[in-house]
Amino acid sequence: MAEVVIETSELVKLFGSRRAIDRVSLRVKTGEIYGLVGPSGAGKTTLIRMICGLLRPNAGKVTVLGHPVPKEFPTIEARIGYMPQEHAVYRDLTVAENLLFFGRIYGMSRQKIVTHGNELLALMHMDNLRDQRADRLSGGEKQRLSLACTLLHNPELLLLDEPTIGLDPALRIAFWEFFHSLNSTGHTILLTTHYLDEAERCDRVGMMKLGKLAADGTPEQLKALLSKDVVAPSMEQVFLHITQPPQRYGGGAK
Q1: CATH code where residue 113 lies
Q2: Which of 242, 234, 248 is nearest to 206 (CA)?
Q3: Which of 47, 89, 126, 133 could form a disulfide with 121, with the two C-beta atoms 3.0–4.6 Å apart?
Q4: Nearest CA to 216 among 228, 229, 207, 227?
Q5: pTM summary value
């Protein structure tokens, strides 16, 4: 069996009386692209923030790269790249200065930051924006810069919260080609997404509803949950089947 990189056990997170995460047990293996899908408020962001040690659970356990989180997160921090939903860049710094700042946080030398940063900017088609201030970038350019800063120290595990939100279709495709190229070199990726076509590109998918992990499996395994009468089942149909009340679903699954 492949090594388990992320494991949560009966994880619970409360915000006042609201149970944002409700006994979620999840396993992500080495080399997987695992997608978390669910409607707004389902708990995707809360779960990923607990996995990267930013939120403490009220109950349950989180283990990342063999270490309990958040207790031993500093031990593994350099092996992880976290990209939050909001653009994780400093608006008053240039593109190059942002890369330098984040590289220094991870103890990289200036030469290594410049070399790897230039490679990433070329991949992101941002070579000509190196001296542009971040507050003058478009939304898609800020998203690309945020991803470049996340990847700069070459983390083995990527935690990406809505990495393609707001991007045009061509740029979303480019991001996914990049994710698969990273994955082919041994990187493990856990990401959240609202786009169900992106769920098709994942090795495994977890569908969340009201803080619970309502379903988990490969795209084909999840499609098999639908009625045999459904012709050419899609992830959209699976999503509706799992997250919506039966009377509201008109996709043919019972």
Answers
A1: 3.40.50.300
A2: 242
A3: 126
A4: 207
A5: 0.89
Is there a contact between 235 and 197 (Cβ–Cβ < 8 Å)?
A: yes
pLDDT digits (tens, 9 = 90+) for 100-144: 999 999 999 999 999 999 999 998 889 999 999 999 999 889 999
- Phi and psi at 30, nearest 5°, equal -55, 130
249 phi and psi angles, rounded to 5 deg: -95, 125
Whole-angstrom Cα distance, residue 46 to residue 137? 28
> Is 106 found in the same domain as 86?
yes
Q: How much of the chain, in percent, has pLDDT values that exceed 90?
A: 70
Please return the burial class of 1, using the count of CB atoms within 10 Å of its CB with bins 0-12, 13-18 and 19+. exposed
Asked whether the beta carbons of 34 and 205 are under 8 A apart, the reply is: yes
Task: Print the domain residue range for 166.
Answer: 4-217
3-state secondary structure of 193: strand
H or E segment and range at residue 60: strand 59-64
Number of domains in the chain: 2
Both 242 and 153 in a single domain? Answer: no
Residues 43 and 119 in one domain: yes
Question: Does 30 lie in the same domain as 89?
Answer: yes
Inter-helix orientation angle 110-123/139-151, to 10°: 140
